[in-house]
Amino acid sequence: MFRHTLLAATRNRAARRIVETAPGTRRIVRRFVAGETTDDAVDVTAELAGEGLLVSLDALGEDTLDTAQAEANVQDLADLLGRLAEAGLAGKAEVSLKLSAVGQALDEPFALENARKVCAAAHDAGTTVTLDMEEHDTVESTLRVLTELRREFPETGVAIQSYLRRSEEYCAELAHEGSRVRLCKGAYSAPESIAFTDRVEIDKSFVRCLRVLMAGQGYPMLATHDPRLIEIGGALATLHDRAPSDFEYQMLYGIRPQEQRRLAGEGARVRIYVAFGREWYAYFMRRLAEKPANLGFLFRSMASR
Ligand code: FDA
């Protein structure tokens, strides 16, 4: 119940005002968000790269309903990619892109054109883009945009959410050579007709998707902190004769940092999803929704008002 309430609150202005202005919130936010500026993002990337970790950068900001804002978001990402190249970090860091930040809700061809500019900037910098997957009603549009982007930038990746009943089907379609698929459980709210809502069913679906991706010709990216799924992922990689360079683990900045380093220390490729920027509210609320204990920290910080 908490999960649905928190996810509903990502779109509630009053809730946003309360959370953003509560004293102490920023300290908790900093656990999940690397900072507010491009400088912060580059510094954290350099730090993580120094520890043998890879990075995917998420410039926070989503659900853009303004053309100028969408274009400004594209420019910010192009600047970020330029900075990564200058700092010699493009081989260590890619960019995660939310199509809703570049105008998907306004017009799909407009978002495609913007995403194309981001992919071109990534290509020039020497790195890649992975499309995040957002609300269930944007999935088909995101996959259409992916198909178009891959014509020019075949290295473009995409996230698939195992809570979607069709996730296994999507994985089968995407398990081809050159394809990069990030498998995650799914961080949004979706109706029962479209998504599994039971945690065990979501996990089982994750394993079915993982089997398809590991057996396929693409490059699987296992985005989970779940110890059982990480273990199953490793076992399936061995079963399918995948070398450590043929797949990667991905985790969020601030979550299970020791496990991130343990896997990297064993020779695995581990990529940390680093979110940064001022528009942290929705991202932060999704992190709270994933783990009720995080809510305790927030309530305590609010009580100290
Ligand atoms: P689960 O939620 O079961 O957590 C397993 C364990 O991990 C928990 O017991 C806890 O120890 C730890 N943990 C997980 N979340 C935590 C939190 N917030 N705070 C503290 N501890 C936590 N989703 C989506 O819909 N679209 C997307 O594009 C992406 N992209 C993405 C990229 C990457 C790199 C990751 C790791 C995740 C995403 N996600 C996502 C989010 C994903 O769908 C999911 O919500 C979270 O990863 C949590 O699910 P787990 O698989 O970790 O399992």
Describe the structure.
This protein is α/β, with parallel strands linked by helices and 305 residues long. The protein has helices at 2-9, 13-21, 25-32, 38-50, 67-86, 108-125, 139-152, 167-174, 199-215, 227-239, 257-265, 281-290, 292-303; strands spanning 54-59, 93-97, 129-131, 157-161, 180-184, 219-223, 248-252, 270-276. Strands 1-2-3-4-5-6-7-8 form an eight-stranded parallel beta barrel, surrounded by seven helices. β7, α11 and β8 (270-276) form a beta-alpha-beta unit. The model has no long low-confidence stretch (mean pLDDT 95). The protein binds dihydroflavine-adenine dinucleotide (FDA). The site of dihydroflavine-adenine dinucleotide (FDA) has 24 residues, from β4, β5, β7 and α12.
Helix-strand category:
alpha/beta
Query: Which H/E pattern describes the elements?
Result: HHHHEHEHEHEHEHEHEHEHH
- Any low-confidence stretches, pLDDT <50, length ≥5? none
CATH top level is: Alpha Beta
CATH fold node name: TIM Barrel
Helix content: 40-55%
Radius of gyration: 18 Å
Shape: globular
Number of helices: 13
Which hetero ligands occur in this complex? dihydroflavine-adenine dinucleotide
Strand order of the largest sheet: 1-2-3-4-5-6-7-8
Oligomer: single chain
Biggest β-sheet: count, sense, barrel?
A: 8 strands, parallel, barrel
Organism: Actinomadura logoneensis
Protein name: proline dehydrogenase
EC number: 1.5.5.2
Binding site for FAD: 133, 161, 185-187, 224-225
